[in-house]
Amino acid sequence: MKKTLLLLGASGKMGTALGEVFASDYEVIPKTSADFDAANPEGASALIEEAKPNLIVNAVALLGIDRCDREADRAFKINTLFPKILAQSAKQHGACLIHLSTAAVFDGKKNDYYNENDMPSPLNIYGATKLAGDSMIRAHLKEHYIFRIPIVFGPSTKEDQFTEKMLMKAKAGETLKVADDVYDSPSYSLDVAAEMKRIVDLESPFGLYHVTNRGKASLYELISYMVKKAGLNVPVERASYRQFTFVGLKNTNTPMTTGKLKPLRSWQRAADDFLELLRSKNRL
Prior knowledge:
Elements: E1 3-8, H1 13-22, E2 26-31, H2 42-51, E3 55-58, H3 65-70, H4 72-93, E4 96-102, H5 125-140, E5 144-149, E6 152-153, H6 162-171, E7 176-179, E8 183-184, E9 187-188, H7 189-201, E10 207-210, E11 217-218, H8 219-229, E12 236-239, H9 267-280
Parallel strand pairs: 1-2, 1-3, 3-4, 4-5, 5-10, 6-9, 7-12
Antiparallel strand pairs: 8-11
């Protein structure tokens, strides 16, 4: 009999990937914002009580530096209090919790790759509320995996995702202006999800892991590579993030690596597979 997995945030990019990857060995119960309100965290307890899952996956977050600065109270409820409630409910029902965190917990001043041993120092409300959520889980539940992930590309039901939005603009013939002074470790959602499942299946020690494709790139380098590989003949122009409207302080140099895992394949090879997937679905 398959174990049961309650997937919260099933319609997001990582939720979509995790649902696909875990479905081979788990009975996945997908839940979206139509089923619960993460800003009212107590609502999740009822879902857990009903599903009685072996594993809970929290792919829910209020994303975006600027949005969290504008909606600080909501960011605190979703990114901090919601994980706390999940951890407490998971403990009550004997479940393991997988929680997705972010490179935004770092300030970007290291000038090198961040690993699991580096001390977080968030610059903005998004990073601070995510870090607080991580801490809540550690405080209330031993049986947890916290996976920090970078900017992610991959299959999505939404059209406001950065990488996919840029590709669609390029397909429409638009000239692109992309920041060349924001660095990350771009990663493929399906690679990240598969590595998370591998860690869980191996019953690896509970705790914190960085899960990324290998390497780093500026946003300009990422989009330039994808546009070229996709055969889209449009200009991609360098810009500074300062040229775009923003509210919150930016952590602009947060590539990640891991000291606990074997590195995944390069982001370039992962991007090649993603582009091939888009072609197969007539999205390019």
